[in-house]
Structures are given as structure tokens and as C-alpha cells.
Amino acid sequence: MLVSLNWLKTYVALDMPVEELTHRLMMAGFNHESSTPVGDDVAIDLEVTSNRPDCLGHIGVAREIAVLWQRALTLPKAAPQAKGKPLNTLASVVVDCPDLCPRYTARAITGMRVAPSPPWLLRRLATIGQPAINNVVDVTNYVMMESGQPLHAFDLERLAGGKIVVRRGRQGEKLEAIDHKTYELTTEMCVIADRDHAVGIAGIMGGASSEVTAATRNILLESALFDPSAIRAAARRLNLQSDSSYRFERGLDPEATDWTSRRACELILELAGGELASGAIDVGGSPPSPKPIVLRLPQLERILGIEVPATRVREILAALGNQLVSDGHGHHAVEVIPPSWRRDLEREIDLVEEVARIHGYDAIPEDVNVPMAPSARTAEDRVLEQLRNTLTALGYDEALTISVVDEAWSRTFSPWTDAEPLQLSMPILRRADRMRRSLVPSLLAARRTNETLGNLICELFEIARAYLPRAGELPQEDLMLALASGGDFLSVKGAIESLVARVNPALELTVEPARFDLFRAGRACALRVDGELLGYLGEVSDDGRKAFELRSATTAAEIRLAPLLDRAVLLPQYQSQSSMPAIERDLNLVVDERVRWSDLAQTVRSRAGALLERLVYRDTYRDPQRLGAGKKSLLLTVVLRQPDATLTGELADALRDAIVADCRAAFGAELRS
Amino acid sequence: MALTAFLAELDDLARIGVAAFGNARDPVALEAARIEFLGAKSGRIKAIQKSLGQVDKADKPAAGKRFNEVKLQLEAALVTAEERIRQAPVASDEPAFDITLPGRRVRLGHLHPITRTIDDLKEIMGRLGFSVAEGPEIEDEWHNFEALNIPRSHPARDSLENFYLATAQVNRPGGEHASPLLLRSQTSTVQIRVMERTPPPVRIISVGRVYRPDTADATHYPMFHQIEGLLVDRHVTMADLKSVLRLFAAAYFGGEVHIRFRPSFFPFTEPSVEVDMSWNDVWIEMGGAGMVDPNVLRAVGYDPEQVSGFAFGLGIERVCARRHNVTDIREFYKNDVRFLEQF
Questions:
Q1: Residue of B nearest to A426 (CA)
Q2: pTM recorded for the entire structure
Q3: pLDDT on residue B42
Q4: Residue A175 backbone dihedrals phi, psi, to 5 degrees
Q5: B 198-257 residues with CB < 8 A to A
Q6: Which of B134, B245, B262 lies at the smallest CB-CB distance from A27?
Q7: Radius of gyration of chain A (CA)
Q8: Percent of chain A beyond pLDDT 90?
């Protein structure tokens, strides 16, 4: 809201420096955006919060200043002399939709002369950046900027039947507004019409047909109250915001229509001459007066933490326009009837805030003793920290991607649900309007971004939620960890094994083949811990890379964190370690290609039993000439230890031979020396 | 044996031995010299000790004294030589080793700066007694609006001001009308969920993603992170709010910090304030705060006559950007590894 310093001075004495004025206003709730000199005036831009429409006019701001500096506020009388014909012989007003228009005030002036505005008015409007039109329109704008109540002047001669009908728009109805654009009206909108046609979009903009022009001699002046929600909806729908709609949307003083109407008539008579028709039309009339509010004085200390003297409380509330009710509350409470322009004052807490705002928040101390309370990090946060630290140690950078993807990306990978992704009513970014069911597409996109930027090494992880639809319930938001790497299947699998071991060293990670279009056939798996599904891992297929325009080889994985959070060991328990020496034996077993490591390892483990401390996979060796076609050699090491006695070499050799024998029996394995 | 002859022999041994130790260039040569002169079995000092017995009895004290001096002299020369050789560069036949070659470095990953900021803020608030609470990002209208004192007619509920889901609905308990779903526009939703299931006192922070239809530019992004604090108990005042915020800001930014409140307006708090902190003599905007509105306390079944509370909220991206001098918050979501590696 732009205010003119000189204009404010007409209501309240201002002798303080502008900086002091704007600072104090800021500390009372009106943020200072800027001060700009305009001629001998200063345009001050103040931010007015949505609960204070009373300060969308100079009088409201002046009133705040008067309260803060404890000065008198002087308002114009607004008492035009009505010497003309009775108004009801010139015009009539019917309100068909009192829900959208609770009050409609009208006056008429005849025989005026439309001309440019005088210099004083032009200067005021120039300071606040309001374009000058002619003396009549300028006065309506000036008075709106004075009181906050919008006005509209119709050319009375061009209102068919001299009639105003306030009604809902009709199906297919159209109106050319004064901006010379044509708007389609709806039955949700409040429309100002004459006997035959719509002549204005209520509270937003008047129509071109009844606009005041140089030729206008007689006007009908509208000062009305419209429903905030209806105005907001209409302004949105028409994509048409005006100074008027901005004010109506916020809810205006229901008692201001008449004063504003008289004030505008007074100025028009002064600047354009003519005669004011006698009498006024006021459809709807005054609403019931606001309900009294009781402020219990101890509530101030209970909420603010400071005492405010009772006399100061009364002073502040009275200065703000509240009517003090003499009452039986004694010294413990104050009862007030709030002013009609402060529709935001309804409850005791509203008065507490007003007292605090004017008394000043600087009076509240910043060094009181707040009682201590115990708090502990959540188990989830502790596990996530372990995972993140492990991932950074493994060389992965943490990415942060937006929770939505576009439809095409959404389709590339959805391992957790077959349900369609949740769709937003509008995209968040570009075409992205699907809540993601997996983080993998977003990470692959981030990898592509890095390829484009020439970043050769790009190892990314993200921990975030996937959104899985559930009918009739809030969606399931599962915390996921996704990885996108330039490494191969085994390197990413190793990273996941490290993560699982970090959280719980005893957990066994098992895999089984899985098929996804995103992954290369045979290079993808499902991951399980304790038999529970943990996630999926795979090397991205050629088609998958194409979908994300990725050039380089990529492996991606996604795991649910719930199974790990459930099994995390946050308080490891001590286990004594044997001091007996360990013995290692290397085995080099030649087997058929189809023999899987996990099966062979199982056989080794069950034969070695309690003596096996560790089974280490070393390598796979292939050489058709020396091993034969379709054969491979698996190199492994067993680390053996007896907890309470020295394990002899002979015993270790015997165990090795037994392992080889079992592997031969199970897989036809031959020891290669 | 004449004393003079014995002493002359000793002097020769001292001279030759000290020179031999001095000339030894490596541990092998020095060890050879040690064995030759100081060897326990057949060192030359041992041999000369034997001839000490042949010295005239009257001369023995003088001869013995000198013998001990020479022995100590040789031992000292050996220690000096050992020290010299230990510190000398090793001469060897191996190819020259370049110690300035880069080490075999393991590439480290980096935490996202937003994560680091969240961790810092959680840690500080944890020390102030606030526990972390979580809640859904996709919410019903009760938790995102109604319970937060944002009635149906409020502009904040406009469909263009929020990301509503196109179709999904949630059935309200008690068989009431189904509520449309939307992405939460603030983490205050978590406060409602916690208070609904926990009797006072409540002392929590909630951190997470929130969504508002802003056009992405250097200072706005339609998704961002928020941290909100809530303290509800008997006798909680705005002085407590100011004091907690001062402790928080002092812990995070360091140095002497002061807190300033400017009146503001939020539906879920009253009084509502904008919070500034003075840091290096400049007032910096921190975020919004206020006393929990009595309507909010009633909505979760608390009695506003019995308890009061404060709430505050900060935008994490803004804090993080200021802390690390990031000039465009879109960088946070681009995931350029050259950006990520800086943190």
C-alpha cells in the first residue's frame, strides 16, 4: 500500500523524521518496503497484512500513527449539501442477491462538468502512482485511497431505466469492462446491471457502456459492500485484479459505505459542480453492531509474559477506536465494543495482540529461564545418520530432488505399486504433476544433468519418501534410499551390503532375480533381509538409458528403509573374542558355470560349522583351455578358529578336505592346485 | 709392561677406533666396527684389557683409569655414529621414490547442504529440549487448514494457492464428508497430529518438505523445507518464545545475538510476529512465530484456559543459503556434483 506523506499530514500532525515514522510503523505491524521522494512529497510503501483492510486507506494508516504518537486524528466532515431533486425520481436500486451484496449505497449528482482534476489532486494521485483520468473518476479513486472503501461512478444517462439491479451473472452473459476487454460472467459472480444489461462486475471493474466520459453530466455514485469470497473467486476466474477487488477480498468496514459516498459527493461538487440529489439509497443498511469483548487483564501477563498497566491498556484500546463499556469488571478486566472497521477484533486474544502491538514487543524480555526438558534423537535420525555417513564414505554425494515427476518418467520404474501415481491438479514444475512412486527416475535425471555438465564422476544417493496410493486413506509415504552410480552391479551391491552391515552386522542380505524394463535382463535383483523385501538393484538397460538420455553405464537401486530401521542395532552388546590363533586355508574349486556362489558358500558353511570364522570370496577364474568349456574356478578362503584351543594344522587340513568332498558331492567341484 | 707403552697402545686404539666409527657410512659398516673395537668376545678393547694385567702393580691405578676413559670414549663415538647413520638418508639401489606423488585417495561423498543445515538445527533444538516429530506430506484439509484456524472462506485455501491432488480423497473418521487431499503447505500439520495424540506438555520440532505454488527463481522454489517448533504447557509466554529463539540463534550463529519481534499475521498464532535477529549489528529476518491460537488448542482438544504455547517456523533453504552464501536456491535441487562437493 503506497501512502503519501503530505496526504497523511491532513489527518494527523507529522513532525518526526520519515525514518522514525516508518520504523515505528514497522514495529507496529506495517513493514516498510521503501520511501521514494515525489516532488515535495514522499511515497511510502507499507506492507499491510491481510487481516488489516482498514489500513488500505490513508485514514487507517493515519489512525495508527495517531495511536502510536498519541496524537489527535482529524477526519473530513463529508457533509455535502443536497439541493437537487429527490434521488428516487432519478434512480432506483434493487439487490437480488443480498448474500453477495449485503449493502448498497447510492447517490446522484446532476449537471456537473467533467474536466481534468486540479493540481493538488493530481499531485496526490501522482505520489501513489494512480493515473489521472478526469475529476469525477479521480475523486472516486482518491476517496478509495482515503477511506479504503471502493466507489464507482456510473453515467446516469446511460443506465437503462435509471435502474441498478445487483444480481448474479447469467449463463453466457458477457460484459465489456472499462479496460475494453470482454469478460464472460457466471452465475457465481455478482453483477451490477441496469434494467437491460450488466454494467459492471461487482467490486472488480465497471463496464465500458456506462463509463464516465467528458460528455457525462449526471452520475450515479455506488458505494457498496460485496462478499469477500465471491469477489475473490470472480477476480481469480476472470484473472482480473483491481485496487477495488483487492480491498473487497479482505472484508471492509460495513459502516463506511455512507461516509465514503458523502465524502466523494462533497469533492465532486467542489471540483465538477452540479447538484446533489436529495436523499440517499441504502439497501441492506447497517449490520448489527459488533459484540462486546472482555479482556481479563491477567491474560496479558499469561500470554505476553509482561505486565501492562491497566491505564495503558484502556488508553491503547480506546485510541484504536474501541468503545470502552463501563462495566462491573472492576480492575481485573476491560470490556470494549470494537470499531466497525476492525472486523478482525472478535476475541479476547485479539485484544491481547492489539495491546502488545501498540505497547511494543521490545518490552518482552529475551532472557527468561525456560524450564529444561529431556529430549533424545529419534532412532530413525540415528540410523539415517549412520546410513548417510556410510554412503559419503563410499563416495556417494547426497542429492535432493523434487517429489514429483512427469508422466513419462513416472512410468519408467514403479517397483512398489501397480496403482497409478497420485496426480496433482496442477504441475509443481514444468510438466511434473505425478507424486513419485520411486526416487530412481529423479536420480537418473540428476545423473543426466551431470553428464550434460561434463561431470565424469557422478555417484548419487537420495533419502526421501515415495508416495504409494491407498484408496480412501492418506497415501503411504515410505522412506526410500535410492542410488544411481557409474559403477557396475557388484559395486552397488557392495554399497548396499556395507549399509546393511553398518546398521546390523548380523543381518543377512539375500538376492533373487528380478525383471524390470529399466534394468538389463540378468543384471537385476530383488534384495531381502530376513526374508523381508528390502529393495531392487540393477544395471540400467539400453532402453532405460535412452528414456533418460544417459550416455554412460549406470546402475540404480532403491531400498525401503523401514526393514533396516526395524532391525537396526543402536546399542551393540560386547562379545568376548577368542585369543586362540586362526588358520586360513585357500580353496580353488572348479565347478560348472551354472553353480551359484551362494549355493556353494552354503555348503562350505554347513560343513565348516562352528570352526568357520569367516568365508571370503576371492575371485572367479575362467580359462576354457585349462579348465574346460563351461567351467569356472572359484577362489575362496576359509578362516578357521577354535575358540578355546589351538586349532592344529592337521585338523584344518582335514576340514578343508571334508569341505572339498562335500562340494564335489553337491556340485561336482574339483580342487585345482 | 711399561706404563708408557701401555698408554701409547691405548691412545692408538682410541684414535683408530673413533676414526673407524666416524667413517662408518651405514649400519652394516658400523656394526663391523663395533665388533672390531668393542666386541665382547674378541674386540680390540677386550684384548688390551688383558694386557692391563701385565702392567706393573704400582702403575695399575693410572693404567686402569686411562683404560676406562678410552672405553667410554669409544662407546660415545659409537652412539654418535649410530645417531648420525639413523638420520642420514638411506642410500639404496631401489629406484628413486617420489614422495610428492599424490596419495591413493578414496573419493568421499558429501552430504547435501540442506541435510547438514537440518542436522545442525535439529541438534541445537534437541539441546533445548525439543524432540523431532514427523508427519505426512500429503494431508487432509483438517490438518492443513481447519485445525490450524484456516476456515473454508480463507484465501489461503484457494485451489490456486495449494497443490491439491486431482482425484484422491480421504474418509474422515466418524463417516463425515470425504476430504480432498493436498500437499502440506506448512509443517504445522505435524503439530496438530502430535497434539491430537499427546496430552500437554508438548515440546517438538517438525522438519520436512512443504509445497507452495511459487514460480521457481533465485529466492523461491515450489518445494522447500521448513522447521517448526512448538512448546505447549502451563504458563508458556511470549517471553519464553523470545528467549528460546535467542538461545537458538546464539547457538547457531554464535556471538551476541538479540531477538526482535515485529507484529504480523498468521491464522494459527495470535499474537503473531515476524522474528528478526541482530547479528553483526544488522537485523536479519529469521521467520514467523507467535502464541498458538486458542482455536488451534481447542481443535486438538486442549483447554486454552489451562495451557498456552508458542510456535515458530523457519525456511531451511533461506537459512542454508545465507549460511553458505548460496545466491540461487535452485542450486539446491539441480544436484550438480560440483555444487554438492563444496559442502
A1: B163
A2: 0.86
A3: 84
A4: -145, 135
A5: 201, 203, 209, 211, 213, 216, 222-223, 233, 235, 237-240, 242-247
A6: B262
A7: 40
A8: 96
Q: What is the pLDDT of residues B89-123, one digit of tens each?
A: 665 677 788 888 999 999 999 999 999 999 999 99
How close B148 gets to chain A, by Cα (Å)?
16
DSSP characters for B181-240? Answer: EEE-SSTHHHHHHHHHHSPSPEEEEEEEEEE-----SSS--SEEEEEEEEEEETT--HHH
pLDDT at B174 over 60: no
Mean pLDDT of A84-109: 96
* Closest-CA residue to A478 (of A513, A507, A439, A523): A439
pLDDT in tens, A357-372: 999 999 999 999 999 9
Question: Residue A398 is nearest to which of B112, B259, B270, comparing CB atoms?
Answer: B112
Query: Could you report the per-residue pLDDT of B19-70, keeping only the tens digit for each?
Result: 988 888 888 888 888 998 888 888 888 888 888 888 888 888 888 888 899 9
- Tell me the chain B residues in contact with residue A52 when contact means C-beta distances shorter than 8 Å: 265
Coil, helix or strand at residue A3: strand
C-alpha cell at A286: 447497517
One-letter-per-residue 3-state SS of A565-585 = HHHCCCCCCCCCCCCCCCEEE
Predicted confidence (pLDDT) per residue in A312-368, tens digit = 999 999 999 999 997 667 778 999 999 999 999 999 999 999 999 999 999 999 999
What is the C-alpha to C-alpha distance for residues B329 and B343, in angstroms, rounded to an integer? 15
Cell (9 digits) for A161 = 431505466
How far A265 CA lies from chain B's nearest CA (Å)? 33
Distance separating alpha carbons of residues A209 and A197, to the nearest angstrom: 10
Question: Which chain B residue lies closest to A345 (C-alpha atoms)?
Answer: B270
Q: Which chain B residues are closer than 8 Å to A350 by Cβ?
A: 270
Residue A336: alpha-carbon gap to chain centroid: 37
Does the distance separating the beta carbons of A361 and B262 come in below 8 Å?
Answer: yes
Q: What is the pLDDT of residue B159?
A: 85
| Cβ pair B160:A378 closer than 8 A | no
Residue B6, helix vs strand vs coil: helix
User: Concatenated DSSP letters for A154-180?
Assistant: EEGGGSGGGEEEEEE--TT-EEEBTTS
Q: Is the bond into A86 cis (omega within 30 degrees of 0)?
A: no
What is the spatial order of strands in the sheet that A476-485 belongs to?
A: A397-398, A460-468, A476-485, A555-560, A532-540, A519-529, A509-513
Q: Is B172 on the interface with A (CB under 8 A)?
A: no
Predicted confidence at residue B56, as pLDDT, reads: 84
Instruction: Please give, rounded to a whole number of angstroms, the shortest distance from the CA of B320 to a CA of chain A.
Output: 14
- How many angstroms separate the CA atoms of A519 and A413, rounded? 9
How many CB atoms are closer than 10 A to CB A573?
A: 5
- Distance in angstroms (rounded) separating the CA atoms of residues A318 and B204: 39
pLDDT at B169 over 80: no
Residues in chain B: 343
d(CA B102, nearest CA chain A) in Å: 18
CA-nearest of A526, A605, A523, A606 to A560 is A526
Rounded to a whole number of angstroms, the distance from the CA of B248 to the nearest CA of chain A is 12
* Nearest residue to A219 via CA among A271, A170, A184: A271
Given the cut 0.85, state whether the ipTM is greater than it.
yes
Residues A104 and A283: their CA atoms lie apart, in Å, by: 5
Residue A14 has pLDDT above 60, yes or no: yes
* Residue from B209, B335, B342 whose CB has the most chain A CBs within 10 Å, to mutate: B335
Helix/strand number for chain B, H first, E second: 12, 10
Residues of A in contact with B107 (CB under 8 A): 395, 457, 459
CB within 8 Å: B139 and A302: no
C-alpha–C-alpha distance, residues A234 and A229, integer Å: 8
Residue A327, pLDDT score: 66
